[in-house]
Amino acid sequence: MNAGLVAQYAVIALLVAASLVYTLRKLAPKTATRAQAAMAAALLRPQRGAFAQRLGRFVQPGGATGDCGDGCGTCGTCGPSPTSATSANASGSTQPVTFHPPRR
Fold first, then answer.
1. Among 22, 30, 94, 101, which residue has the least CB neighbours within 10 Å?
2. Contact at 8 Å (CB) between 40 and 63?
3. Alpha-carbon distance values, 95 to 8, 82, 91, 92 (Å)
């Protein structure tokens, strides 16, 4: 195996790993944050070296800001509330869906 082929496989592996991390952060943000915090906690142990602790501080996830974009979900105000959807259905303010055939 020559060096060009090894470099090609390394680049492909890096791209696959980056897409896996991106997909995990988009589809499962709480799980990704938990995994990131566990990795940071393992790197921030006192017996680790200075480089590992610096890397742990870099990897450590930020705290929840209270913004709807951070994905914490603790306040329950992100997205439509289930009570407003059920009260709209109970009052009869919903409209039926009508499908029309495509025009030719």
1. 101
2. no
3. 56, 18, 12, 8
